[in-house]
Write a structure and sequence with these properties.
By secondary structure, the protein is an alpha+beta fold. It has a single domain, classed as OB fold (Dihydrolipoamide Acetyltransferase, E2P) (Beta Barrel). It has 4 helices and 5 strands; from the N terminus they run H-H-H-E-E-E-H-E-E. The protein has a 5-stranded mixed β-barrel with strand order 1-2-3-5-4. The relative contact order is 0.21. The chain binds copper (II) ion (CU). Copper (II) ion (CU) binds next to strand 3.
Length: 130
């Protein structure tokens, strides 16, 4: 189930205009398609493991909350550059656990921890700037 949810999240982020246009990072979408094909020749049981082959990057960012979707479990941040991932400043949606979407408010200036996998990311911690 985790793989399916991740795929949906990646698709959602890919459709988010800001990221796709400003950054050169359609890598995750391509990797997701290529990896299962490669696994096909071997053990079908490995297919669900394919996404973890994309290396995740843990990074810190700073930005402003521009939207929160508790139903979808996403938080949209207008964030500054993230050198760890060679990302420019942009506005994009991240996955986020309820503890994070509940704690944040639109307009908050925040520091956040994020785990990036390809063009998708999940905010794992958030702190309102004093
Ligand atoms: Cu971004």
């Amino acid at each position: 189930m985790h793989y399916i949810r991740l795929t949906i999240a990646l698709g959602f982020v890919a459709l988010t205009a800001a990221c796709g246009k400003k950054a050169e990072m359609p890598v995750a979408a391509e990797t997701n398609q290529a990896a299962p094909a490669a696994a096909m020749s071997g053990d079908m049981g490995n297919m669900a493991m394919a996404p973890s082959a994309t290396s995740a990057i843990k990074a810190k960012g700073h930005g402003t909350v521009t939207a929160i979707d508790k139903t979808a479990g996403t938080i949209t941040l207008n964030h500054g550059p993230i050198p760890e991932a060679k990302w420019p400043a942009m506005t994009m949606a991240f996955k986020a656990a309820p503890a994070i979407t509940d704690a944040a408010k639109v307009g908050d200036k925040v520091d956040f921890d994020v785990t990036l996998t390809g063009s998708a990311g999940e905010v794992t911690a958030i702190h309102k700037q004093p």
